[in-house]
């Protein structure tokens, strides 16, 4: 039963991601590049999303997804040319586990490519980090840090540009697994929608 619910949740997130991608693609039919992108880029995102966490010990399962607030979701990078950037992303969401707040996120080296002048796609693979929320660390309680692997895919559409500042609407999907003590692991699915504030 857990496997079926897990598959349904992942499929729903993928369908939502594909739907948002097709909407943003359909909004821009102009093939000319009008924005000059050069040098370093920085972005932070504010928004909301859902996170679903499961561990193989059965303490937490994918049966219950949690709504979450996203801030800050950071990205640093460098433009290789006017359409391609190499980036380091730090996505993540807060979730509740045994009456404590924890953060499941990652450090993900990635590539961002502008398919159209305003529409971009972004993805990568890197380090998953399952940690206590920095405001909820207690001695010998909720103080364990777990690491593993995560993959990320996102897309966005730039709705406002002025000089080197860009405002975009974006969605992001992150799948990750962190290793716990005693050969256990924790899996997470994160899906976020937010507003990105960029400086190019």
Describe the structure.
The chain is mainly β and 200 residues long. The protein is 12% helix and 60% strand. Strands 1-2-3-5-6-7-8-9 form an eight-stranded antiparallel β-barrel. The protein has one helix and nine strands, in the order αβββββββββ. The protein has one helix spanning 2-26, and strands at residues 40-55, 66-79, 84-90, 92-97, 100-114, 119-132, 146-162, 165-179, 185-199. The model is unreliable at 28-33 (pLDDT under 50). The chain has one domain (2-27, 39-199): Porin, CATH 2.40.160. β5 and β6 (119-132) form a beta hairpin. The chain is elongated.
What is the CATH first-level class name?
Mainly Beta
Strand arrangement in the largest pleated sheet = 1-2-3-5-6-7-8-9
Domain tally: 1
- The whole-number mean of residue pLDDT values reads 84
**Can you name the CATH architecture?**
Beta Barrel
Low-confidence stretches: 28-33
In angstroms, what separates the terminal alpha carbons?
47 Å
Please identify the structural class as seen in this structure: mainly beta
CATH fold-level label: Porin
Residue share in β-strands: over 45%
Overall shape: elongated
- What is the helix content? 10-25%
Give the radius of gyration: 18 Å
Strand count: 9
> Can you write the helix and strand succession as a string?
HEEEEEEEEE
Question: Biggest sheet: strands, sense, closure?
Answer: 8 strands, antiparallel, barrel
């Amino acid at each position: 039963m857990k496997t079926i619910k897990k598959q349904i949740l992942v499929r729903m997130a993928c369908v939502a991601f594909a739907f948002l991608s097709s909407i943003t693609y359909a909004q821009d039919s102009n093939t000319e590049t009008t924005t000059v992108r050069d040098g370093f880029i920085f972005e932070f995102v504010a928004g909301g999303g859902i996170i679903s966490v499961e561990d193989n010990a059965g303490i937490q399962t994918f049966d219950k997804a949690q709504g979450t607030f996203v801030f800050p979701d950071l990205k640093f990078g460098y433009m290789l040319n006017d359409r391609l950037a190499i980036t380091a992303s730090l996505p993540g969401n807060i979730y509740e586990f045994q009456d404590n707040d924890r953060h499941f996120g990652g450090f993900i080296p990635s590539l961002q490519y502008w398919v159209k002048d305003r529409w971009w796609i972004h993805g990568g693979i890197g380090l998953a980090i399952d940690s206590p929320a920095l405001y909820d660390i207690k001695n010998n309680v909720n103080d364990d840090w777990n690491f593993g692997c995560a993959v990320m895919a996102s897309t966005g559409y730039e709705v406002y540009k002025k000089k080197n500042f860009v405002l975009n609407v974006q969605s992001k999907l992150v799948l990750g697994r962190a290793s716990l003590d005693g050969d256990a692991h924790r899996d997470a699915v994160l899906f976020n929608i937010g507003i990105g504030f960029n400086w190019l």
